[in-house]
Design a protein that fits this description.
Elements: H1 8-46, H2 52-58, H3 60-81, H4 85-99, H5 109-112, H6 115-126, H7 130-145, H8 151-170, H9 172-175, H10 181-201, H11 215-223, H12 227-239, H13 251-256
Helix pairs in contact: 1-3, 1-4, 1-7, 2-8, 3-7, 3-10, 4-6, 7-10, 8-10, 10-12
Length: about 260
C-alpha cells in the first residue's frame, strides 16, 4: 500500500483534541448519572404524606444532595458558556473520525467515542446550558412518569427551596455568617437551579403572577451581587427558562433580565 504522510500540524491538532474528547465524554456520562440521581431524589422529596417543607426538614441530607447537584450543574454550565472552543474542537474530532483521514494514526479513541456516541455528545454540548437542560428534562420526565403524584408536590418542593435560598441571601444575619463567598454562590446557584426546574415543570412557569416563586425578589437578590458573580446565573435565567418571554410574564420582570 501507498504510505500516507500526515502533516505534523494535523497530528498535533489531533493529539491535543483526543484527551479533551475523553474528558467531554466523562462529563456527558456524568450528566446521565445526574439525571438518574435527580429523579430518585425527587421521588424521595415529593412522596406523600408530607408537605414539601416537612420533607426538606425531615430529609435534610437529601435536600443537601439535591442542592449539591444543582450547584455543580450551574457551575459547570457557567464554565461551559465561557469556553466556545469546546464545540469547535468537538466538531473537528467528528469530522476527523468520519473522514478517517488519519489512516496511519492512533485511532484507539474510536472505541471510546464512536460516531453514535459523538452524535449524542454533540447534541448535549450544543445546548447553551447542557447540564441544566439535562436536569430540566429529568424533572419533566419525573412529573410525566408519576401520573398519580400531584404536580404540586414537585413544584412546591422547588418553590420552597427557592424561597429558602432567597431568604438566606437577602437576610444580612445569614449572609454575614457565611464563611466565604462560596456559600453565597452556592445559595445563588441552587436558587437559580430550582427556579429553572420549576419553570419547566409548572404549566404556567415561574414568571407569571400566580407563580409561587417571588421572581422579582429572586432577581433583585442576584442583581445586588457583583456582576461577575451573577452574569452566568442571569444568563441561565434568560436562556434556559421556558416561560420568560410568555405574554403573561410581567413587563418589569422582563426588563430586570434585559
Amino acid at each position: 500500500g501507498q504510505l500516507k504522510i500526515v502533516a505534523p500540524h494535523r497530528e498535533r491538532a489531533w493529539n491535543s483534541v483526543c484527551p479533551l474528547v475523553i474528558r467531554l465524554k466523562k462529563f456527558y456520562s456524568f450528566s446521565l448519572r445526574l439525571e438518574e440521581a435527580l429523579q430518585s431524589l425527587l421521588e424521595s422529596l415529593t412522596c406523600p404524606p408530607y408537605t414539601p417543607t416537612q420533607h426538606l426538614e425531615k430529609e435534610q441530607a437529601l435536600a443537601k444532595q439535591f442542592a449539591e447537584i444543582l450547584h455543580f450543574t450551574l457551575r459547570f454550565d457557567e464554565l461551559k458558556m465561557r469556553i466556545p472552543a469546546i464545540q469547535n474542537d468537538f466538531s473537528y474530532y467528528r469530522r476527523t473520525i468520519s473522514r478517517n483521514r488519519i489512516n496511519n494514526m492512533n485511532l484507539d479513541i474510536e472505541s471510546e467515542v464512536n460516531n453514535e456516541m459523538a452524535n449524542r455528545m454533540s447534541l448535549f454540548y450544543a445546548e447553551a446550558t447542557p447540564m441544566l437542560k439535562t436536569l430540566s428534562n429529568a424533572t419533566t420526565n419525573f412529573v410525566t412518569e408519576n401520573k398519580t403524584l400531584p404536580l404540586e408536590n414537585t413544584t412546591d418542593c422547588l418553590s420552597t427551596m427557592a424561597s429558602v435560598c432567597k431568604v438566606m441571601l437577602e437576610t444580612p444575619d445569614y449572609t454575614s455568617r457565611f464563611s466565604s463567598e462560596d456559600t453565597l454562590l452556592f445559595c445563588m446557584r441552587v436558587m437559580v437551579g430550582v427556579i429553572i426546574l420549576y419553570d419547566h415543570v409548572h404549566p404556567n412557569g415561574a414568571f407569571n403572577k400566580s407563580s409561587k416563586i417571588d421572581m422579582k425578589g429572586c432577581i433583585k437578590v442576584l442583581k445586588d451581587q457583583p456582576a461577575d458573580n451573577v452574569e452566568g446565573l442571569l444568563n441561565a435565567l434568560k436562556f434556559t427558562t421556558k416561560h420568560l418571554n410568555d405574554e403573561s410574564t410581567p413587563k418589569n420582570i422582563r426588563t430586570m433580565l434585559q
